[in-house]
Amino acid sequence: MADHGYEDGRLNLPFVGFATFGKNPICEDWDRIKADVAILGAPFDFGTQYRSGARFGPRGIREASTLFSFGHAGAYDHEDDAIYLPGSVKIVDMGDADIVHTDTEKSHANIELGVRKALAAGALPVTLGGDHSINIPCIRAFDDQQPFHLVQIDAHLDFVDIRHGVRHGHGNPMRRAAEKDYVTGLSQIGIRNVSSTAKEGYDDARAMGSDILSVRQFRKLGVENVLRRIPAGERYYVTIDIDGFDPSIAPGTGTPSHGGFLYYEVLELLQGLTKQGDVIGMDLVEVAPDYDQTGSTSFLAAQILLNFLGFIFHEKEK
Q: Domain 21-317 belongs to what architecture?
């Protein structure tokens, strides 16, 4: 190894080196994943009904995530008096699923393969979207796993069945998930304003086991009471649409919806989930960096994911 003249190793500042997720190592051989967490990019946005651009979400989130990694493991939280994501938690970046332009089914199949490979290796799959249709292949990949409850943070219900023959767009994923016999129920949180789903979609969602809360209802109940509505002692898959947050802090998305969540509301909900059940997978979708020249949307996405992962593994270590 070349001697670069560093006495105590490299400082590895955020703007130096490779922009992998959290500056964690790359694992391009998906049959040799040895990690607790596997990050998969799903840069697919052919499912959008309005503004595209979420294909650049994985790249934007990865670059933003370097801010939170200074070349050393662990982050001390003085409020919780805890060190999150110490060196004992191994994270690898799988890179991106191959996207075949205009071919939704092939692209989704490639995303599904990546999630399956992470699960086969015993790693927690974290998928960076992409539009919300990428949740469809993510959920498909769990068909040989134990049942789980799905928790959605979103402005939109995404419960369209079929519209003009489209079954796998970004308005369909929660409907497709609810159809799976291994999805035991859904908690759909943050749903508000003019939505992508008509009234019959709401009726169908509730009939198929969904509990729907708007942001105002969430705030009236409070985090603890919302957590009580989510079945305890379950396995949870969490899907976070960045438009669940208010566009004042997350403008970089294709379908912004005012009246959304602020950071700590979602963070406290996610931390509470880790205390009452086992999180077995997640995706974060609809970050479209080109609509936010400040980069704050990508920073928000990276920070919420890193904190969520920290909470998950902190609970496992107890």
A: 3-Layer(aba) Sandwich (3.40)
